[in-house]
């Protein structure tokens, strides 16, 4: 293995702690069989999902982020007041404004911190992660909290069997800090957007183009609208391209990785990418059966699964990858330093 660590102006950054949260309510495939024309086997065969979590009424994505952040900071042993900046990756904010970062800062008690939201679809976490990394690498901050979370069930049409089986709620948080001497931390990233794909996966109403009216509600324009075939084809191609690119330019092979942690959109997309990379099956993290697609929440949740299963250990090379609405594409390579 030849790892050519790309130069960083300033200092290197690392993930120093992780915390996740999913709501307690569970929606199983058997539950969906009673709600829409589908079957447990049909869902399993096409997506690999068995169940997903649903956020309770009266709660928002900020609450998911706060619970995950509490666990993250407790794992690191620091107080919320030590956090200097908060970056939230989400497409399901509590409201249009203020930002979810503002709500999290207040609920968490991170007095003195500033922050902002990143809308990257299912790439929300990897995009927010790089924003946090650059804040640390630049020397601007020493402790940046990055969250990836979504409450997709809030915008899911449960009369549409092609989409309602896919989505769940949940997320996670990581703390970004300067790497210590001898640590590598974050190595490289590849990001891309292709706005021509926006028509294939979107929520048409609720913004400035189609503000909320009785007509937009009646037309179900506040739900997820998806061209499944177009999204699937793009995701398979671009996840493979982005991961291959980042590995090749850093002089490593898929077999050199400790684990591959992809966005959990569809089991077939994950396995197709892993095959392209030559990744051993036991190093590919898949937990979609428990959570469904939680958009920006999938990668931190999969990180926790990898740690719990003993597949992610200190010193491991880790590859992250996601494709989402936009279309957005993101991949990141790092050394796990926890």
Write up this protein.
This protein has helices spanning 29-33, 40-47, 61-76, 100-108, 124-137, 161-164, 214-218, 228-249, 267-277, 288-291, 298-308; strands at residues 13-21, 25-28, 51-54, 85-89, 114-118, 144-151, 169-178, 186-193, 201-202, 225-226, 259-262, 317-324, 328-335. Helices cover 32% and strands 23% of the residues. The chain has two domains: 13-178, Peroxisomal Thiolase, Chain A, domain 1; 186-335, Thiolase/Chalcone synthase (Peroxisomal Thiolase, Chain A, domain 1, 3-Layer(aba) Sandwich). With 338 residues, the chain is α/β, with parallel strands linked by helices. The strands form four sheets. The protein has a five-stranded mixed β-sheet with strand order 1-7-6-4-5, sandwiched between helices. Strand 12 and strand 13 (328-335) form a beta hairpin. The mean pLDDT is 96.
């Amino acid at each position: 293995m030849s790892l050519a660590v790309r130069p960083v102006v300033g200092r290197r950054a690392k993930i120093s702690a992780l915390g996740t949260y999913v709501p307690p309510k569970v929606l199983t495939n058997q539950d969906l069989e009673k709600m829409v024309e589908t079957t447990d086997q049909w869902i399993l065969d096409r997506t690999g999902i068995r169940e997903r979590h649903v956020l309770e009424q009266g709660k928002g994505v900020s609450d998911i982020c706060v619970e995950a952040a509490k666990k993250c900071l407790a794992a690191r042993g620091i107080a919320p007041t030590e956090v200097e900046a908060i970056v939230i990756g989400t497409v399901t904010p509590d409201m249009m404004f203020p930002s979810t970062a503002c709500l999290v800062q207040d609920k968490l008690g991170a007095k003195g911190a500033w922050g902002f939201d990143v809308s990257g679809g299912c790439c929300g976490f990897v995009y927010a992660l790089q924003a946090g990394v650059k804040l640390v690498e630049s020397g601007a901050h020493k402790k940046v909290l990055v969250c990836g979370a979504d409450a997709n069930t809030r915008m899911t049409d449960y009369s549409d069997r092609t989409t309602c089986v896919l989505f769940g709620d949940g997320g996670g948080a990581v703390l970004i800090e300067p790497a210590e001497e001898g640590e590598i931390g974050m190595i490289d990233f590849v990001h891309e957007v292709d706005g021509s794909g926006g028509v294939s996966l979107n929520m048409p109403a609720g913004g400035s183009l189609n503000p909320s009216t009785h007509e937009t509600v009646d037309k179900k324009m506040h739900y997820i609208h998806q061209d499944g075939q177009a999204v699937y084809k793009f995701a398979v191609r671009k996840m493979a391209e982005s991961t291959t690119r980042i590995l090749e330019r850093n002089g490593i092979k898929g077999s050199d990785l400790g684990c591959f942690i992809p966005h959990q959109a569809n089991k077939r997309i994950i396995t197709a990418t892993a095959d392209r990379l030559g990744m051993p099956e036991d190093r590919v993290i898949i937990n979609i059966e428990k959570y469904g697609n939680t958009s920006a929440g999938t990668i931190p949740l999969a990180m926790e699964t990898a740690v719990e299963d003993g597949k992610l250990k200190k010193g491991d090379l880790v590859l992250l990858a996601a494709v989402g609405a936009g279309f957005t594409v993101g991949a990141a390579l790092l050394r796990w330093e926890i």
